Amino acid sequence: MVIGILMMVYTGFNYFTTEKLVDIGPLEITRKKNNIVQWPPVVGAILLVGGIILLFMGKKGSRV
Length: 64
Known about the structure:
By secondary structure, the chain is an alpha+beta fold. The chain contains two helices and two strands; from the N terminus they run H-E-E-H.
């Protein structure tokens, strides 16, 4: 449930990687590239509902 809530609030994140463009002897040219990871908020809602269902199913099973 917590992951579902977090995925609905934060719909993605960015991270940077360094790419080597040119490497000629002592000369090296690099570039930082911004990579974006995104997911739709619906995925978080599905995880949240699934967590709630599992929570209630676990409570029913412990009574028997």
